[in-house]
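1st attempt posting a full record on here, be nice pls
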Amino acid sequence: MREQCVIVGAGHAGSQAAASLRQEGYDGQILLVSDERDLPYHKPPLSKGFLKSPDSPALVLRNADFYRDNAIEIVYGATVSEIDRQAKTVRLGDAKRLSYTQLVLATGSRPRLPALSGATLEGIVSLRTLADARRLNELLQGASQAVIVGGGYIGMELAHTLTALGRKVTVLEAAPRVLARSVAPEVSRHVHERSVAAGIEIVTGASVAVFEGVHGRVSQLRLEDGRVFAADLVILGIGAVPNVELAAAAGLAAENGAVVDDHMRTSDPAILAVGDCASFGHWQAGRRLRLESVQNATDQAKNAARTIAGRPSPYREVAWFWSDQGDMKLQTAGLALNADRRVITGSPETNAFAVYHFRRAELVAVDSVNRPADHMIARKLLAIGINPSEADVLAGPQRLKELLSQAPAVLEHS
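the predicted structure (as C-alpha cells):
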C-alpha cells in the first residue's frame, strides 16, 4: 500500500508540513485538510495591512501551482470529527473517511472567549482567520469607537491599525502593563507611552464585568470597578486555546496541547502534532510548553517532515517572535523565563533599544525595538550557546559579532 500522509489544518504549520515532506523526498500521497475555502495564507498581516487595504487579496503562503506541481491535494471546507487509530482513518464532517499511514495534527488554536454576559452581542469579534478579518472590515465601516479587550501583540497591533484608520481606540488590559507576558517591563513602558502619544487610550488593571447593548448590538462595556466605556465595536484579544479536542478524543496524551516528543511524535508514533496545538519539552525552558508563533509552527512542521521521512532530529530551534505596532518593530529571541537580570542597550528616547535577559551569567532572551541587528545576533548567540558579558552587550552589535566569529574559542573557554 502506498503511504498516505493526512495533515489536519492548513495554516502555517500544515502548509509547511506538506511542503517540507516533498522537500525531504516523501513520495507518498499528501492530503491537506483545511476547514477554510481559501488557499493557505499568512496570518500576521490580518491585523495590519489587510485591514488597511481590505480589497487587497490575502497574502498566500504558496500559490495554487505549488500544491498542484507537488501533488499536494487540499481538501477545502472540511473538518475532521474523529480519528480511528486502529483503522488508521480520520472521519470528516460529511462522514467521508480518509486513510493514513502518517497523520499530522496542525489544528492550531482558537481565540479565548470570555464567559461574560453580553459576550455574544453583535459587534463583538475576535481575529484569527481571514473570515474574521473580512467580518471585522465590514463592522469597521459603521464603527467610530472601538474597544480592544487585551493588550497583547494582537490587541496592540490592532489598536495602531484602527487608530491609523481614524477610529477612536481604547485598549483594556487586565494586567498591570501591556504585553506583560511577552516582553520586558522597559519595552512595555515604551510601547504604552508611544501608543498613548499616537492617540490610543490604554487602561491597565481593567477587568471587564459585562458587555451591554442596544437592540442586540454592543454599545458599551462595564468594568468590575464600575467604569463604563462606550463602544460600537469590540475586539477580543485575551489569548488563545489549543485545538486539542480531536487528539484527546482519540486517546492521545494531552497537556495544554497534544503532548509530543523531541521529534513531534504524539503518544501514537503514527501521529504527529505541530504548531499551536503541540505541547513539547523546550530545551531552553527546561519544561513542557506551547508556543504560538509563525516561527515555531514552521520549524516544528519541518522537524515533523524529517521524522516522517526517516531522518528524525531533536527539535532545538531558538524561539523568536515579532510584532509591528505603529512605528515600532518589536522582536524577541529566546524565552525570558526565570531571567533575573536585564541589560539595556540603545535608547528608548530614539525609539531604538534592546533588552538582554540573563539568568545568572546565561543569556536567555533579547527583546528589541527597531534594533534588527540585535535581534539577528541574539538568535545566533542563543543557538550556539554564547553568553556575552554585560560589557560585551554595552559595547554594541560589533562586539557581539566578534564573539560569534570567535565561537569555537569562546565555547572552549566557557
